[in-house]
Write a structure and sequence with these properties.
The chain is an alpha/beta fold and 703 residues long. It is built from 23 helices and 22 strands. The strands form 6 sheets. A 6-stranded parallel beta sheet has the order 2-1-3-4-8-7, sandwiched between helices. Helix 18 links the parallel strand 14 and strand 15. Helix 2 crosses helix 3 and helix 3 runs parallel beside helix 4.
């Protein structure tokens, strides 16, 4: 039975809706439904091994329902955590779907791909639940991104339907110690975003007391002097107080007064999860927690005031019957076909996600071509090529927006975005706080909201604090079974330049490739940079766009601008030098070195073919294998470290699929397994040089 299908006589509804707008009958029904589902899982489904993970919401439930019923606009969104099922029921999630998800059945939140409590809810009729992340605190910055998207739609795009919309993030008291919480708090308050932080303080993070998470165990008190943040604090088990605080907090945010933090103290009446025996709590503490159970308080608040005892009993029976009906329906669902787990890693033709990305908002990419315009123009460097492409796409697509540290008036530390804020405004090209977690996390929320965010990570090494958000964004389509996706283009400069160092010169592209769901582009020249960037900006998948520092202004990398319609497909390599004796597979800054080594080898009678992969996910296996089967030799050259570098994947594929065609071993030439050295002499020795490449060519051809 769907929560949305329950009809009541008009008289009853009128009587149970108080002047504050709270439908107490609905609150009672949803709280009792949540309790019935928890009890069913704990006493029947877990013992029967039909559920593998269970997180009881008992104690948290009533306040969540009060909050969820305030989220009634299509532009609202909420993101919670394991104990957020009461909120989901209030948003309209069918209890059958909730139970089917808990049992990992087909058609649930993820179709059995993810833990059953890891939810998502693309709601076409009201507020959506953003895809939950499994890491503590990872929900904060994507919610801040949704809040910033509300502001963008309203102020930049002039969409009045976003007036008064809000984003709500739920977190426990332990989550306030996370990087994500503080990053989102900074974003929301400095930008005055319509965002509500709802902290459910039950006193524990699994077994660790809240005093270990924040001094004194009270985040509301500690944030009392935080500028731009309105604080609401109280008892989440008292129906009247919880109603008042929820109403005040949501009115504050909807009224355009900036973000708010609502801290409600609640008891966690069961363990962190079903397996948690709570032995770290004394008997007296457990008894004190049960004495604060909000359900008896809710009943006392309603019976005799807005409901009779008979009406309460009827509601309880109704909720129990709905839970039983949901269980029957959920158990009737099959497990998803096992081979289906291979689908929806990337976008698929004819299978558009329900929510997220500009395509779901009606975006249609302009006509494009992989043919360079015939007009002759000045050769431009890669910096200018990238800037011109960003400028053009900003001009024709209002959903594109650029942000990162120093990309505004300064134009980026590599000058790629120079002048773009002056032309397109600070609403579309803007600086951010110094938090890579915040940069990528907010991009996730913006992407889900239908924008095309283009965040910049200043240098490759600086992406490490954003690792969790990068992983969560890439896996979103798969783990929600194509319900949600977060297409974006993350610009990442990196690699050596005139010198190196362990902090600014790292490449390590393989780490991005090992995050499922991300496409990875590594252009070696200005023309390819234009074509790949344009494809990424018009696409429907998240993309890492790697801008090699050594190529940004290199003379070799300069090309004529290929035109505003020029776009290249991902997974299509380019043969930059044809040959018959050996195939060199490479990308990025190694391409010109391999070409030069090939020319040197040609003087000695060696015929060298050089393949520039251009994209590493996907990579052009067919082109590499066809070339190797013809030349019968393969040398892989890359700047990244050798051990577990992407060259190892290429070598394995060549060995697997073209072994009998080889006349020599597959060889990799890379940096040694060390960070990038700083002094130019040390760097030149470590990075594959033209001479070293030429020597390897001679060695393999003469094998």
């Amino acid at each position: 039975m769907s929560v949305e299908t329950i009809d009541q006589p008009t008289e009853t509804l009128r009587d149970t809706v108080t002047p504050g707008g709270t439908d107490w009958r609905r609150v009672a029904y949803l709280t009792l439904l949540s309790r019935a589902l928890d009890e069913m899982e704990e006493t029947r489904l877990i013992p029967a091994k039909k559920i593998m993970y269970q997180f009881s919401a008992r104690g948290h439930d009533m306040a969540q329902v009060l909050l969820g019923l305030k989220l009634d606009r299509p532009q609202d969104a909420a993101c919670g955590y394991y104990r957020s099922r009461p909120l989901l029921l209030a948003l309209g999630v069918d209890p059958e779907v909730a139970l089917a998800s808990a049992m990992a059945r087909e058609g649930g939140y993820s179709g059995g791909r993810d833990i059953g409590t890891v939810f998502n809810f693309p709601n076409r009729h009201g507020a959506s639940a953003l895809p939950m992340c499994g890491g503590v605190g990872a929900q904060y910055t994507p919610t801040a991104g949704w809040a910033q998207a509300i502001d963008y739609y309203r102020t930049v795009l002039g969409d009045a339907s976003y007036d008064g919309a809000m984003a709500v993030v739920l977190g426990g008291d332990a989550s306030v110690a996370s990087n994500g919480f503080w990053s989102a708090l900074t974003i929301a308050t400095t930008q005055k975003l319509p965002m509500l932080f709802y902290i459910e303080d039950n006193g524990f993070g699994i077994s660790v007391p809240s005093s270990f998470q924040t001094p004194g165990g009270d985040i509301a008190a500690n944030l009392a002097s935080w500028r731009g943040l309105e604080i609401f604090d109280g008892d989440g088990t008292d129906p009247a107080e919880a109603e008042r605080l929820v109403e005040a907090a949501t009115e504050h945010v909807r009224g355009g007064q900036g973000p708010a933090l609502l801290r409600l103290t609640v008891p966690r009446l069961q363990g962190h999860s079903f397996q948690d025996t709570q032995t770290y709590k004394s008997d007296a503490l457990v008894s004190a927690e049960w004495a604060r159970d909000p359900l008896p308080k809710l009943k006392a608040h309603l019976v005799g005031r807005v409901l009779s005892q008979g009406e309460w009993d009827a509601i309880e029976r109704e909720a129990g019957a709905a839970a039983e009906a949901a269980l029957v329906a959920a158990e009737g669902r099959d497990v998803a076909p096992v081979e289906s787990v291979l689908r929806n890693v990337f976008s698929e033709t004819g299978a558009l996600q329900e929510m997220g990305g500009q395509w779901t908002k009606g975006y249609v990419a302009p006509a494009a071509s992989d043919v360079v315009e015939a007009t002759v123009g000045q050769r431009i460097n890669m910096v200018t090529a990238i800037r011109r492409t960003l400028d053009h796409e900003l001009s024709i697509n209002p959903r594109v927006l650029l942000f990162g540290e120093d990309i505004g008036p300064k134009g980026g530390v590599h000058a790629v975005t120079l002048g773009l804020q002056d032309k397109h405004g600070s609403g579309r090209v803007f600086d951010t706080s110094l938090s890579e977690e915040g940069i990528i996390g907010r991009a996730v929320g913006m992407a889900i909201a239908g924008l095309m965010p283009v965040p910049e990570i200043q240098f490759r090494k600086y992406a490490e604090p954003a690792t969790e958000q990068i992983n969560d964004a890439g896996t979103m389509r798969w783990r929600t079974d194509n319900r949600f996706a977060a297409p974006m283009v993350v610009r990442v400069p990196g690699g050596f330049f005139k010198c190196g160092d362990p902090w600014h010169s790292q490449t390590n592209e393989v780490a991005f490739i090992h995050n499922p769901g991300w496409q990875v582009a590594v252009p070696s020249n200005a023309e390819d940079a234009v074509g790949l960037l344009r494809t990424a900006l018009r696409g429907n998948d998240p993309v890492i766009f790697f801008e090699h520092r050594a190529m940004l202004d290199a003379a070799w990398a300069r090309r004529q601008y290929p035109g505003d319609d020029y776009a290249l497909p991902f997974g299509k390599a380019r043969v930059t030098r044809e040959g018959d004796d050996i195939t060199i597979v490479t990308w990025g800054a190694m391409v010109p070195r391999c070409e030069e080594a090939g020319a040197t080898a040609a003087e000695g009678g060696r015929s060298v073919e050089v393949i520039d992969l251009r994209t590493l996910m996907p990579w052009d296996k067919a082109a590499v294998l066809a070339s190797v089967r013809r030349t019968r030799r393969c040398l892989i050259v890359h700047e990244d470290l050798q051990t577990a570098g992407f060259g190892a994947e290429i070598a394995a594929v060549v060995a697997d699929e073209a072994f009998i065609d080889l006349d020599a071993p597959v060889v990799r030439l890379t940096m040694p397994d060390i960070p990038s050295p700083h002094h130019p002499a040390l760097l030149d020795w470590a990075v594959p040089s033209v001479a070293k490449i030429a020597a390897k060519i001679d060695e393999l051809v003469g094998y």
